[in-house]
Amino acid sequence: MAIEIINFNQLQRQSLDRFPTNYFYIAFCIIFFLYTIQKRDKKSSSRFMEILSSNQSISILEINFNNRIVRTNNSSVSLEQFCQSYVIDSITLQNNIISSMNQFSPSDVQIKSKSCSSYYRLTGKYDASTNVFQGIMIDNTQEKQQLNKLKNTLTHDALTGLQNRYHLYNKIQKFCAKSSSEQCSIYFIDLNKFKQINDTHGHDNGDVVLRSVADRFQQFADESVLPVRLSGDEFLIVKRNVESNTQADQFISSYLSSVQCDTVQLNNSTSIKVTLSFGGVVFNKSQSTQTDKLIKCADERMYQMKKNLLPNGNSTVTFTA
User: Fold this and answer.
1) Domain chopping of the chain, boundaries
2) What is the pLDDT of residues 133-170, one digit of tens each?
3) 180 CB-near residues (< 8 Å, 6+ apart)
4) Distance (Å, whole) CA 218 – CA 137
5) pTM for this structure?
6) Is the fold of 15-144 the same as that of 156-309?
7) CATH fold label, 15-144
8) GGDEF domain spans which residues (predicted)?
9) Fold classification of 156-309 (topology level)
10) Considering Cα of 266, then 269, then 270, then 273, what sign does the dihedral take?
11) Could you report the per-residue pLDDT of 261-282, keeping only the tens digit for each?
């Protein structure tokens, strides 16, 4: 059997001879990899700048509050000129940026124009040592308008435009919290013989009646009155600044008389007289958290009125928890 004798010195020389080749190959791969990344980042950065330049709603900003200079995409203007062009208050802008941002992580600040017709979002960093903000400003007016439209859709009845049941309890609590007196009142209202109107004149004309009544609720309401559509032909009227049960009765009688005074013109050229039934509850504004009980009590009071069970037409009662 032949035994191969390994010459370690020779093997070591061969390895060293190949080492430079392997080393330079690995170095070349690393350099090529880094070059590719740099080229890609440069291309992405160029593309990003192209997008910013073409999008008029996005501006790159550097605001130097010490020098009162604003550098934008392509120009430099004074802080006063910049704020004037966007109808922004310069003091508000500076205070919001200083109080909300830092130099370590990007933050957002929301700014609105003096007329509240335009809204802007500033995203970037603020360096307190140099009193300089660097970042971008985005005109998000359209986004804000769409959001407000969505909120309005959620909180208002599609048919009548009145407030709806969405977050009803919160609405009533916030509304009553602004009462100048300790008492408020709530009234449950429905249309008399509304089913007969639908059966006789059709549901389209029933909708005409509901819209007409809702419009009058709004027309004769001031800032102390909140009309709400619950469902179908049922409505709530919330009144704040109430001094007594007598005043509450006088208010609702006068208010509903104005709503009922004119006939409603239907689509088929027919005019009909609409009448309403109601029941009311006077309560302390601190009790507005018990909305369920208040509405139930007013509802029961209304049905007593429908059945002529209330003496002297007195439709309002003091709420007892």
Assistant:
1) 15-144, 156-309
2) 998 888 888 888 888 888 888 889 999 999 998 889 99
3) 240, 241
4) 40
5) 0.64
6) no
7) Beta-Lactamase (3.30.450)
8) 182-321
9) Alpha-Beta Plaits (3.30.70)
10) positive
11) 999 999 988 899 999 999 999 9
